[in-house]
């Protein structure tokens, strides 16, 4: 698999730039933290929840496949999520670090020289929370801002060996974001902002 470094930086920068414009230059903070709210819609603000609400621990190398409009990128990533926080490291095909994201429940740190300084890591963390945190906690938090999450469980394969879960973030009858999870991949699709990315087990992706 060939990883496109420069294409990656351009596409992801464009994607997050669009998100950060919505969040504005200065946003209110959660009391006692340095975390900015995430605008799930243009008016609905989601505050990141504590790392202890994670569904189960993750420590994996994954192929990250992103799409924004007609542009696509692929890179290797290392994702660690536990009750202490979130750590995401983006890697080149040579194993060098392209960028790092961390969240410890009190602050979000994002370091990537290729990306715009106004890029907000909270949006990436929010997507990961929607996908990997406990459904009841996500539902409770979203209900406070007038949103909901619908979840369905099905089998991903005809042999019924792989379970598929679909989480849909809803504003009334409108789906804002959809997360599809199996034991081999997670697909996050933001239907409102027009971007998506897929996390695939490195072995499955042939990395």
List the helices and strands and how they pair.
Blueprint: H1 5-23, E1 38-39, E2 45-46, E3 58-68, E4 71-82, E5 85-91, E6 97-103, E7 108-111, H2 121-132, H3 135-143, E8 148-155, E9 163-171, E10 174-181, E11 185-190, E12 195-201, H4 202-205
Antiparallel strand pairs: 1-2, 3-4, 3-12, 4-5, 5-6, 6-7, 8-9, 9-10, 10-11, 11-12
- How does the major sheet shape up? 10 strands, antiparallel
End-to-end separation in angstroms reads 6 Å
Roughly what percent helix? 10-25%
Strand content: 35-45%
Average pLDDT score: 81
Order of helices and strands: HEEEEEEEHHEEEEEH
List keywords for this structure.
single chain; 207 residues; 4 helices
Describe, in short, the structure shown.
21% of the residues lie in helices and 40% in strands. It is built from four helices and twelve strands. The strands form two sheets. It has a ten-stranded antiparallel beta sheet.
Describe the model.
The structure is a single chain. By secondary structure, the chain is α+β, with helices and mostly antiparallel strands. The protein has 4 helices and 12 strands. It has helices at residues 5-23, 121-132, 135-143, 202-205, and strands at 38-39, 45-46, 58-68, 71-82, 85-91, 97-103, 108-111, 148-155, 163-171, 174-181, 185-190, 195-201. Strands 7-6-5-4-3-12-11-10-9-8 form a 10-stranded antiparallel β-sheet. It has a two-stranded antiparallel sheet with strand order 1-2. A hairpin with a 4-residue loop joins strand 6 and strand 7. The longest helix is centred in the N-terminal third of the chain and has 19 residues, at 5-23. The chain starts with a helix and ends with a helix. Residues 1-32 have low confidence and may be disordered.
